[in-house]
Design a protein that fits this description.
Layout: H1 5-16, H2 39-46, H3 50-57, H4 66-75, H5 80-89, E1 104-105, H6 108-115, E2 122-125, E3 131-134, H7 136-141, H8 155-161, H9 163-168, H10 172-189, H11 194-206, H12 208-215, E4 224-231, E5 235-245, E6 253-258, H13 264-276, E7 297-298
Antiparallel strand pairs: 1-7, 2-3, 2-6, 4-5, 5-6
Helix pairs in contact: 2-3, 2-4, 4-5, 8-10, 11-12
Length: about 300
């Protein structure tokens, strides 16, 4: 992830996804040799010279203004998330590029809040999607990350590499691909973070699927949605989830899972809650799935 290489790769990938008719240009009478728009077409749509756009796409050491990047975002029909990522990648070279070294700490009141939710599994994610904390239902529903070595307590790493994740998520490929796109957003915000660089390198070596998704250059914001679980105790269950960013704790977000009151999914969460409280509803099946404890500090590389 060197200076302008990520900007270059992102621009090329987005240009390749568009057809002339997608941006109001007349379609070609014969197929193009390579998919996507030509550089000169993007430059014309963005209102700049082909030479300048070409130098950007080649990864030259130039610092485009925010207005130039916004013009390119419009030309490439990027959504809000893609536009924000483009601004991150195109930040001036002399501006700090997001190197972080201090550990993230979880406030005691945040942990108490999460544990006070009797019917909502929750986990707290930090920079690079490190798992900072979970509540009891979160550990029972998803995984007890405290059973992993410190450096492995990362949600993306767990989704991609841990066999339990493939069994737990009914739509594992979609979940995994989305998390790769979220990690790419994080890499754009913190391009000099050694933890992200090491994580991307490890996953690219250990997972061909990750390497393919990473090369696709897709980005997304992880804000809300639904997930379908195949849980070892309660069986198939679909839950909504919502990300709650903590304004006073930068780069910390609580992800809360919930079900409509009185729904079959709510009943299953109630069953899971009974096991957490020690009621022998079906607890033996969870013995290898969850365990005690909850870590509040994630150490980061210096």
């Amino acid at each position: 992830m060197t200076e302008r290489s990520e900007l270059s790769a992102f621009l090329q990938a987005q240009r390749a996804r568009l057809r002339p008719e997608d941006v109001g240009l007349a379609p070609d009478s014969v197929p193009r040799r390579v998919p996507g728009l030509r550089r000169e077409e993007v430059a014309r749509l963005a209102g700049m010279s082909t030479d300048y756009y070409t130098r950007l796409e080649q990864g030259r050491k130039i610092s485009p203004s925010e207005s130039v990047l916004s013009s390119i975002a419009r030309a490439l029909h990027l959504d809000e998330v893609g536009h924000r990522h483009l601004l991150d990648l195109g930040r001036p070279l002399y501006v700090g590029t997001g190197r972080v070294s201090h550990p993230q700490r979880v406030r005691a009141s945040t942990r108490q809040l999460m544990e006070s939710w009797p019917d909502q599994p929750a986990l707290l994610l930090g920079r690079r999607l490190d798992v900072l904390a979970t509540n009891a239902l979160g550990r029972a529903l998803i995984f007890d990350f405290d059973t992993l070595p410190q450096h492995e307590r990362n949600y993306v790493r767990w989704v991609i590499l841990h066999p339990h994740a493939r069994e737990l998520y009914a739509d594992w490929p979609a979940v995994a691909e989305e998390m790769v796109a979220v990690l790419r957003m994080e890499a754009g915000r913190f391009p000099d973070d050694p933890g992200i660089i090491d994580l991307v390198g490890e996953l690219a070596v250990k997972s061909d699927e990750f390497a393919t998704w990473w090369a696709d250059q897709r980005v997304t914001a992880h804000t809300h949605g639904s997930k379908r679980f195949r849980h070892p105790v309660v069986g198939a269950v679909e839950l909504e989830w919502q990300g709650l960013a903590l304004p006073g704790d930068e780069n910390q977000t609580i992800y809360v899972y919930h079900a409509a009151p009185g729904s079959p999914a709510a009943d299953k969460i109630g069953l899971l809650g009974s096991w957490v409280e020690g009621v022998p509803a079906a607890g033996a099946a969870l013995a290898s799935h969850s365990g005690p404890g909850n870590e509040a500090v994630v150490d980061e590389p210096a």
